[in-house]
Amino acid sequence: MNARRIGLLSTTFLLTLACMASGQSPTSLISPASVVFPATPVGSRLAPATITVSNPTTSTILLEEIIVSGIDFAETTDCGKKLAGGANCSIQVVFQPAISGERIGNLVIAASDSNLPHFVPLTGMGE
Predict the structure, then answer these.
(1) pTM
(2) CA dihedral 78, 83, 86, 89 (to 10 degrees)
(3) Within a 10 A sphere around the Cβ of 111, how many other Cβ atoms?
(4) Would 110 be classed as within a structural domain?
(5) Structural domain contains residue 80
(6) How many domains, in total, are found in the chain?
(7) Is the Cβ–Cβ distance between 91 and 51 less than 8 Å?
(8) Is there a domain that residue 1 lies in?
């Protein structure tokens, strides 16, 4: 049984982790599927998009790595290496375009619930 909860309020995004069946590892469902930042002057920094990681299961999930790719994006997080059942943490992603034009990157979350990392595409426009 998979559960998914999607929350969207301003630039706050909710990633909800759900457990499939008793005895199996938790399975991450990430929402939104992508983040699009508005057009931003080169060198200016937007307010961050807040991504919340929640674990509604009773199993601990290991958060092995949380990073962003692309020179125009940066992240900070209060997430530790373990996310206990019922706990949550936040990832702040900022956009600061280095040059004009379309800018792309990814938020990458490597966790114990999957053999492959989870990717959230990030896009924005530098002006």
Answers:
(1) 0.74
(2) 20
(3) 22
(4) yes
(5) yes
(6) 1
(7) yes
(8) no
Structure tokens at 26: 């938790």
Residue found by looking up tokens 């492959």 in the block = 116
Q: What sign for the dihedral angle of Cα 87, 47, 104, 32?
A: positive
pLDDT at 7: 34
Domain annotation covers residue 3: no
**Residue 11: exposed, middle, or buried by beta-carbon count in 10 A (0-12, 13-18, 19+)?**
middle
- Give the end-to-end CA distance of the chain in Å, rounded to a whole number: 45
Q: What is the DSSP letter of 22?
A: T
Tens-level pLDDT at each residue, the chain (127 residues): 333 333 333 333 344 433 333 344 545 556 777 899 999 999 999 899 988 777 878 888 899 999 999 999 999 998 899 988 888 888 999 999 999 999 999 999 898 877 788 888 999 999 9
State the residue range of the domain holding 102.
8-119
* 73: three-class secondary structure by DSSP: strand
CATH number where 86 lies? 2.60.40.10
